[in-house]
């Protein structure tokens, strides 16, 4: 679509095919005080508070050109699907360096969507997170300005890192239209090991050879277990699997679990962060909560302490069940457990304290006021509802 800045009526849904078209759309939306929501694969639409109906909904999947592929980086439009980037990189024996949630990749997640939501997968022990692999971004600001530096968003942000400002911002500060990310050589072999209980997880984090992933999975109504991923050269991987089986009671080689790389998803999902040493206490708390409230609870996450807790809330009182779980987890104190709502039926967001204590909230508001003073970009979708 090529529209005129001055004569065409601003649509409710647009699919720009270039930076210039997106810039023009945003300039019009800014001038008319129209709120804007952007989507790619739509795989995170259910996460964070549901957005109110925007004045302009922008589909970025037409901005999907792979612009450049160097030795260890790839640059592409924000609407490029991660699966397409992986296929492209695989032609040279490479893959995206950061690990990303497999369920979102398979559902059509895009490069811009993954960056704006700071997505991460389970292989975060020996790989950097996505935020550390984004080399550069190009953005379109709330007023339509095309910016490649933080200064382009606002002069007061001169010297700040532009990727750092937009990664994990949920589209509330600027619209990512292109990004360059790092690649890595594909692993020759991957093997999984199943270990009963969560007790071995902490020792694995400081082992002589730290695994590529250590995931603790507690299904509803069942005891927790640990699943370890080892990847690399075949001989090295086989030797390490043998070492784990010999050293850890009950450790058994297994195939890739069907849930691997997927998020914990029941009716409501709570993000939980704890110190690794506090994980046993978290699991005990989940066990007691499930027994007390009578609703199924599913806990899944990395032994580093980042978890998702799925709550099987009943249709009759989803807000009550979600509030009880949040309040119980927060009763331990922020220095032990941080818990915030990630996904829930729409009415629940107004019935609970979704975010809890949020250090740095005032600074987030200050940045939002600088880059989007009219508040038209994805209002309420950012961290702490900013």
UniProtKB/TrEMBL annotation:
<dbReference type="InterPro" id="IPR006094">
    <property type="entry name" value="Oxid_FAD_bind_N"/>
</dbReference>
<protein>
    <recommendedName>
        <fullName>FAD-binding PCMH-type domain-containing protein</fullName>
    </recommendedName>
</protein>
<keyword id="KW-0274">FAD</keyword>
<dbReference type="InterPro" id="IPR036318">
    <property type="entry name" value="FAD-bd_PCMH-like_sf"/>
</dbReference>
<keyword id="KW-0285">Flavoprotein</keyword>
<dbReference type="InterPro" id="IPR016169">
    <property type="entry name" value="FAD-bd_PCMH_sub2"/>
</dbReference>
<dbReference type="InterPro" id="IPR016164">
    <property type="entry name" value="FAD-linked_Oxase-like_C"/>
</dbReference>
<dbReference type="InterPro" id="IPR016166">
    <property type="entry name" value="FAD-bd_PCMH"/>
</dbReference>
<dbReference type="Pfam" id="PF01565">
    <property type="entry name" value="FAD_binding_4"/>
</dbReference>
<feature type="domain" description="FAD-binding PCMH-type">
    <location>
        <begin position="3"/>
        <end position="186"/>
    </location>
</feature>
């Amino acid at each position: 679509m090529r529209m005129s800045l001055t004569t065409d009526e601003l649509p409710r849904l647009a699919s720009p095919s270039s930076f210039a078209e997106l810039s023009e759309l945003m300039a019009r939306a800014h001038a008319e005080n129209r709120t804007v929501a952007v989507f790619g694969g739509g795989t995170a639409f259910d996460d964070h508070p549901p957005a109110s109906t925007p004045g302009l909904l922008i589909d970025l999947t037409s901005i999907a050109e792979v612009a450049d592929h160097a030795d260890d980086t790839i640059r592409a439009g924000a609407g490029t699907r991660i699966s397409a980037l992986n296929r492209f990189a695989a032609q040279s024996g490479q893959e995206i360096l950061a690990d990303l949630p497999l369920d979102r990749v398979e559902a059509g997640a895009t490069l811009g969507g993954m960056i704006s939501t700071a997505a991460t997968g389970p292989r975060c022990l020996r790989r950097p997170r996505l935020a550390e692999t984004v080399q550069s971004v190009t953005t379109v600001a709330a007023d339509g300005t095309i910016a490649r530096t933080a200064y382009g968003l606002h002069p007061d942000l001169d010297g700040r890192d532009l990727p750092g400002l937009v990664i994990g911002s949920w589209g509330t500060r600027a619209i990512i239209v292109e990004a360059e990310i790092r690649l890595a050589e594909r692993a020759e072999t991957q093997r999984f090991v199943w270990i009963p209980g969560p007790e071995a997880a902490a020792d694995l984090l400081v082992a002589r050879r730290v695994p590529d992933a250590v995931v603790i999975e507690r299904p509803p109504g069942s005891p927790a277990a640990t699943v370890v991923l080892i990847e690399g050269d075949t001989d090295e991987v086989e030797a390490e699997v043998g070492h784990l089986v010999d050293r850890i009671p009950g450790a058994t080689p297994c195939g890739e679990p069907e849930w691997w790389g997927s998020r914990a998803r029941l009716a409501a999902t709570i993000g939980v962060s704890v110190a690794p040493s506090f994980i046993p206490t978290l699991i005990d708390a989940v066990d007691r909560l499930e027994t007390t409230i009578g609703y199924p609870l599913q806990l899944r996450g990395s032994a580093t302490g980042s978890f998702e807790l799925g709550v099987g809330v009943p249709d009759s009182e989803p807000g009550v069940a979600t509030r009880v779980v949040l309040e119980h987890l927060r009763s331990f104190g922020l220095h032990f457990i941080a818990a915030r709502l990630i996904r829930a039926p729409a009415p629940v967001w107004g019935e609970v304290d979704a975010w809890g204590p949020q250090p740095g909230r005032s600074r987030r508001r200050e940045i939002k006021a600088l880059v989007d003073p009219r508040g038209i970009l994805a209002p309420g979708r950012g961290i702490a509802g900013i």
